[in-house]
Design a protein that fits this description.
By secondary structure, the protein is an alpha+beta fold. It contains 18 helices and 19 strands. The chain has helices at 4-11, 17-20, 32-44, 82-92, 99-119, 151-169, 234-241, 288-295, 312-316, 326-341, 355-368, 376-402, 457-477, 491-509, 516-531, 537-557, 569-593, 617-620, and strands at residues 24-28, 47-52, 69-70, 144-145, 172-176, 178-186, 189-197, 203-207, 210-213, 246-247, 252-258, 281-285, 309-310, 350-353, 411-420, 423-424, 437-439, 622-627, 636-641. It is globular.
């Protein structure tokens, strides 16, 4: 396993620099995966076109990542290694990831840090100047590199700078405010896309020798999520409908530390970084009467002594405590709230408390300053300084949204949809089942199994873009060095453009009675209530039927104001929600098919006596890859058996 990637690189086909100048590549999505891929491919000499619906690649949702990026550098000397990162990734994914891909990810992780430091990414450093690390959930080492609480932004600026260099050289043509609406297949190969200019509304044809999809995940199928409101599944879903298998759509991640829902008016949720669980302690009152009093405003959380607080993660999982994986922490919070111990007005929140950390850091800093007998007030002030240095922007964001000071009062948090481990099926080269169509980052399924560990999304996106696709795409494109330019006046481009135009005409001319958001919210309610943190067969069957009925109503009753040939955000949303309507049914179908609990997929019928996920390795140790056949309800299941040769498969335990 340790030699597989090196051996593979040594055996794949190469293209000489002169021939690369004659090859065109389209990259859809310019976040960390797409941005890094575009910059690297252009640096190699390929002609690259990039497409993003935002006004700048800098606005890709990768910018929202807060806590950090994993790498097995072992700078802390705490026993980390490539193997340990690989093991933690497979175990964290509940033994449902492809072993070879996960190992490659761990192997490349150190290269990513070197690349980003060379770009000038301002990672946090210790007093002596060395790069600092902190811990994330599901591991017992400190391997997460970070830039305060804005790691994604800083990494994206690095990739964006690399892109800009190639744009200035003329090797990248950037099509901002453009959305891919279909894939064009010529003679069985991906040869281009149909894109809509979101400013003018015109449809455009773009050809290439290969198409790279790096468009992110599909969490917004739930309506309320931590994703940017524009995040969508359209690019991935369009290639699925053209023949790319969609793998494990039911593997959705619920993040345990998000600001709770406050009412029906909300359009998105806000993440509070997992890094906060390094120093924050999660608790609810031990007595249900105290929880009720806090909900009613008769008591404040600080009125309760330590003995009156239930630090339930530390109680249930003593080895990992507050740093258990996300799926475990989320289900534990739900269990406490369902039992009546929730602490906000809706009963759907738990506390994340920094009082202990403030005191601990305060004493340490007082000692550093030679103050060996500090007062309580001095300890608090010193401690708050340290917390501000570590998490200042996160605390500020929380206070602006909730209007409470988290330095003085515990944060209130609750799980929310955050990431999707499912996605387009890809092989070891990151190629989908459509030749010439490659899929990177969160848009593919490959590395995280049924649950992603914190700080591993940035790692996968940059590994795919900087260090995998530049090698593997050449193996495919070696056959195209004599192909020449791909024409856009073929019948395949004509047909693809006509299909998109027909859909846009139908939406614009449909004089229904409800907005796009009306239908998106209804879909979100179905998805969260029946396909969310906990699922069961009855609820999933109901969800499939309800989504199908809602989809039919959508096409009859949706109203899209304005016209196609203008900047029309409602039309943008309509095409995206139409795809969510189909994906939602497949997600429920996949969850219904998987009669086990694994990672983020939790079936209530399959759990241990202690409420933990109960896998069925005999019957479900496979990747479920779905083939589109015209109807999400009848898609064809293909199975990729998962074989573990380097790791012993056993029941996950964080106790």
């Amino acid at each position: 396993m340790a030699e597989k990637w090196t051996k593979h690189k040594n055996e794949i086909n190469l293209i000489n620099p002169a021939n690369k100048r004659n090859i065109d590549i389209i990259v859809v999505g310019t976040g960390l995966a797409g941005g890094s891929a575009a910059a690297t491919l252009a640096e190699l000499g390929y002609n690259v076109k990039t497409f993003c619906y935002q006004d700048s690649p800098r606005r890709a949702h990768s910018i929202a990542a807060q806590g950090g990026i994993n790498a097995s550098k072992n700078y802390q000397g705490d026993g980390d290694s490539d193997y340990r990162l690989f093991y933690d990734t497979v175990k964290g994914g509940d033994y449902r990831s492809r072993e070879a891909n996960s190992y490659r990810l761990a192997e490349l992780s150190g290269n990513i840090i070197d690349q980003c430091v060379a770009q000038g990414v301002p990672f946090a450093r210790e007093y002596g100047g060395y790069l600092d690390n902190r811990s994330f959930g599901g591991v017992q080492v400190s391997r997460t590199f970070y830039a305060k609480g804005q790691t994604g932004q800083q990494l994206l600026l690095g990739a964006y700078a690399a892109m800009n260099r190639q744009i200035n050289r003329g090797k990248i043509q950037a099509f901002n405010r453009h959305e891919m609406l279909d894939l064009v297949i010529v003679d069985g190969k991906a040869r281009g896309i149909i894109a809509r200019d979101l400013i003018t509304g015109k449809l455009e044809r773009h050809s290439a020798h290969a198409v790279v999809i790096a468009s992110g995940g599909y969490g917004n199928v739930f309506y309320l999520s931590t994703n940017a409101m524009g995040s969508n599944v359209t690019a991935a879903w369009k290639i699925h409908k053209k023949g790319a298998f969609f793998a494990n759509p039911c593997y959705t991640q619920i993040h345990p530390t998000c600001i709770p829902v406050s009412g029906e008016h909300q359009s998105k949720l806000t993440l509070m970084s997992e890094s906060l669980r390094n120093d924050g302690r999660i608790w609810v009152p031990k007595k249900i009467e105290d929880a009720k009093a806090i909900r009613e405003g008769k008591k404040r959380p600080n009125d309760l002594s330590l003995e009156e607080r239930d630090f339930y993660l530390e109680r249930r999982y003593p080895s990992f405590g507050n740093l258990v994986p996300r799926d475990v922490a989320s289900r534990a919070a739900k269990e406490r709230c369902d039992a009546g111990f929730g602490v906000n007005k809706t009963g759907q929140a738990v506390f994340l408390d920094f009082a202990s950390a403030i005191e601990r850091y305060g004493k340490e800093r007082a000692s550093i300053h030679g103050n060996h007998n500090p007062s309580k007030e001095e300890i608090r002030n010193y401690g708050k300084q340290v917390i501000k240095e570590k998490y200042g922007n996160l605390f500020q964001m929380y206070e602006k949204i909730v209007d409470e000071d988290p330095y003085e009062t515990p944060m209130m948090i609750y799980p929310a949809v955050h990431y999707t481990m499912g996605g387009i099926w890809v092989d070891y080269n990151l190629q989908s089942t459509i030749p010439g169509c490659f899929v990177l980052g969160e848009a593919n399924f490959s590395d995280h199994g049924a649950n992603r560990l914190g700080a591993s999304a940035l790692m996968q996106g940059l590994a795919d873009g900087y260090f995998v696709i530049p090698y593997t795409i050449g193996d495919y494109l070696a056959q195209d060095i004599r192909t020449g330019k791909i024409p856009t006046d073929s019948k395949e481009f004509d047909e693809a453009e006509k299909n998109i135009q027909d859909t846009l005409d139908r939406l614009i001319n449909n004089k229904g009675s409800h907005s796009v958001d009306y239908f998106h919210k209804k879909l979100g309610h179905i998805m969260w209530n029946k396909c969310g943190m906990a699922r069961n067969a009855q609820g999933l069957k109901e969800a499939m039927a309800e989504i199908r009925a809602l989809r039919e109503e959508f096409w009859k009753e949706v109203r899209v104001p304005g016209s196609q040939y203008e900047f029309n955000s409602e039309l943008e949303k309509a095409t995206r929600v139409a795809d969510f309507m189909e994906l939602g049914e497949l997600l429920a179908k996949d969850a219904l098919n998987r009669n086990e609990s694994a990672g983020g997929h939790f079936r209530e019928e399959y759990q241990t006596e202690e409420g933990e996920a109960l896998r069925d390795d005999e019957n479900y140790m496979y990747v479920a890859a779905w083939e589109y056949n015209g109807d999400p309800a009848t898609e064809i299941l293909h199975k990729e058996e998962l074989i573990y040769e380097e790791i012993e498969v056993k029941t996950r335990s964080y106790k």
